[in-house]
Amino acid sequence: MQLKESKNRIESKRLPQWEYLAFIAAVLITFVICIGLGSVRLPVRDILGYFGERIFGISCEYTLRSTPQILTVRIPRVICVALSGISLALCGCAMQGLLKNPLAEGSTMGVSSGAALGAIVAIAFDISVPVISLASATVMAMIFAFGSIMLILALAYKLDYSLSTNTIILLGVIYSMFISSIIMFITTFASEKIRSITFWTMGSLQGSTYTEALILLVVLIVAGGTILLKAEELNAFAIGEDNARSIGIDVRRTRLIILIAVSALIGTCVSIGGSIGFVGLVVPHMTRMIVGPNHRRLLPATLFAGAAFLMVMDLIARTVLRPLELPIGAVTSLIGAVMFVFIFAGTRRNTK
Amino acid sequence: MSLLKLEKVSVFYGTAAVLKDISFEAGKNEWLMLTGPNGAGKSTVINAVGGAVDYSGTIYIGECDRKTLKPRDTAKRIGVLSQNHSIGYSFTVRDLVSLGRYPYRKGLLNARDVSDEEMVEKAICEVGLEDMSGRSLLTLSGGELQRAFIAQLFAQDPSVLLLDEPTNNLDLVYQKEIFDLLDEWVKRGDRAIVSVVHDIGLARAYGTKALLLNGGVTVAYGSTDEVFRPEIINESYKLDINDWMKKLYSFWTEDHRKC
Q: What pLDDT is stored for residue A321 in this prediction?
């Protein structure tokens, strides 16, 4: 009797299918709103008509004649924003679980700035990776992202075996400062080659193309898929590395796989949109408050929340000071920094 | 047949040996107490068997050499409870306990099956947390948290438990509760426990065997009767154990109460 009752409780704790449908609907609605709003406001009828024309070949009378032109620019951008949001949020979530550290994230750990350095080095010094010369900035960003994670973790292990929150964050901050000074050096020497320094340091997805969206999508399917499959391992790491080892997880191998996946995602995002900070901090944290810390539910939920969150942030960046456009990284950092203080205060209270 | 057997196991941190040529075995229904002064290398034994540190020598788990076993296969045979759990996220008791079934999961998705769920519920009931299975770990008391971790080990269902000070920081009631729970577990089937226990009283009462370490080397090894002898304890701890125990327990004897 008792067993049966508790079994029912397990069923009710699983994320039901309709919740996923609600998530997908929310993301799609956000998507339509985001491509509708901007420097020019498009009517919903036109947007639906455009999709009808493109997908089903139904010809459409536009109320606004420039709709198709605007949408060919706006749609790939919003898709890139959504995919970047997913990637960054997943990375944050994975790192927070892996390191058992609620403040771990691409920008707090210096991974994003490392990736930005990689992309800048590739462009400034015309470094091209053989075979995939087209994507050499992306590849360099990935390599630098991975190098940054390994460097920071190696240093942190050396200083403090338990990898405490404070050690990692402190090292991340120091590393980020170090990297930004190197970036400044490079830009003074090779300024003519880099479109604008703000692009890499603050991030912007203005003028993203379908090709970039496709690159992001492919990396997301491979690396993001890997992370999603490691939900149970992340649960164990989030409880403790010793516990993960005890239940039979190959601790070193799993950690390496997740870190490589994270570097690939952050590297790709940075090479396409510059470093967009704090998404990986804010989104998983909000999602965790709603669905709980179990990664079997948290990772899928983070995926949807990440897409919706960054699309809204991008919308704010585009519309608040119309026709002027804010860098999206500035908007997320502003919100993220405030959030950071609250979470940090919370963790301090817990440890006391 | 021994369930766990160490042959001349040594552990080095850098060039310094923290454990030198340790050998012992634990067989069916045996509870081996690792004891000795602070820094004797007791936790290092647990870490070496658990796979957290590299070692030289041979560790046999059942018939197999530890180094030839895959992590999941090792986890089906030994479970480790480490010291000090600092919980950072609000996982529920059931989340924690169901991780114990990880080594039995199959495929890329780590699919759970019904027998896994049953094992989890059974383990939660065994430690008496059935009313708290949905509670967050952050809201549990020290004793409840320790019981939740023990439930995870029970769900994992290994033949050997390695416990590093299982009742560290727990009050008397919890100490008794947890030792009774483990004592009951080890007496059923092909099971053994190896645990670090500081409290000599507890070690003497619950252990069937003991290994006394000092400075990384074996001082004494054998049944509890052989190891927990005043001359051996006094030598290692630089203390008169008879005097000390008399002082501690004289207040609690029948004679004392009559006075």
A: 83
Mean pLDDT across A195-201: 61
**What DSSP string describes A222-255?**
IIIHHHHHTHHHHHHHHH-HHHHHHTT--HHHHH
Kindly state whether B73 is in contact with chain A, defined as any CB-CB distance less than 8 angstroms: yes
| Residue range B2-228, CATH number | 3.40.50.300
Q: Does B126 touch chain A (CB under 8 A)?
A: no
Give the CA distances from residue A138 to residues A116, A132, A222, A261, in Å, rounded to whole numbers and listed in that order. 10, 10, 15, 14
Length of chain B equals 259
B14 lies within 8 A of chain A by CB: no
- Token output for A36: 């509708």
Mean pLDDT across the stretch A115-136?
A: 73
Q: Do A3 and B105 touch (CB under 8 A)?
A: no
What is the arithmetic mean of pLDDT over B226-240?
A: 86
**Overall average pLDDT of the A45-53 stretch:** 82
CA nearest B47: which of B30, B22, B68, B72? B22
What pLDDT, on the 0 to 100 scale, is given for residue A303?
Answer: 93
Q: At what angle do helices A210-219 and A251-273 cross, to 10 degrees?
A: 170
CA B184 to chain A, closest CA, distance in angstroms equals: 22
* DSSP 8-state code for residue B202: H
Helix H or strand E encompassing A137: helix A136-159
Amino acid A4: pLDDT:
42
Which residues in chain A have Cβ-Cβ distances shorter than 8 Å to B73?
A: 248
Pick B106 or A98 by higher pLDDT.
Answer: A98
Q: Please list the residues that pair with B10 across neighbouring strands.
A: B56
B251-255 mean pLDDT: 77
| H helix count then E strand count, chain B | 11, 10
pLDDT digits (tens, 9 = 90+) for A205-230: 777 788 888 989 999 999 999 999 99
Contact in structure between B209 and B26 (CB atoms under 8 Å)? yes
* DSSP secondary structure of A193-209: GSS-HHHHHH---TT--
Answer yes or no: are the C-beta atoms of B65 and B4 closer than 8 Å: no
Give chain A positions within 8 Å (CB) of B13.
none
Contact A235 B51 (CB under 8 A): no
Task: Quickly list DSSP for B48-112.
Answer: HHHTSS--EEEEEETTEEGGGS-HHHHHHHEEEE-S-PPP-S--BHHHHHHGGGGGG-BTTTTB-
Which residue is closest to A228 within chain B, CA to CA? B109
Compute the average pLDDT of residues B50-75: 90
Non-local CB neighbours of A233 within 8 Å, separated by 6+ positions: A244, A249, A254, A258
The reply to whether omega before A323 is within 30° of 0 (cis) is yes
Closest chain A C-alpha to B214 CA, distance in angstroms: 25
3-state percent breakdown (helix, strand, coil) of chain B, nearest 5: 45, 25, 30
The residue ranges of every structural domain in chain B are: 2-228
Comparing C-alpha atoms, which of A160, A201, A182 is closest to residue A330?
A201
Pick from B75, B96, B125: CB nearest A239 = B96
Give which of B121, B137, B77, B76 is closest to B103, Cα–Cα.
B76
Residue contact A248–B99, C-beta within 8 A: no
Domains of chain A: 77-351 (1.10.3470.10)
| Statement: residue A190 has pLDDT above 80 | no
B91–A9: do the CB atoms touch at under 8 Å?
no
Q: What is the mean pLDDT of residues A195-207?
A: 66
Residue B36 and residue B203: Cα distance in Å, rounded? 11
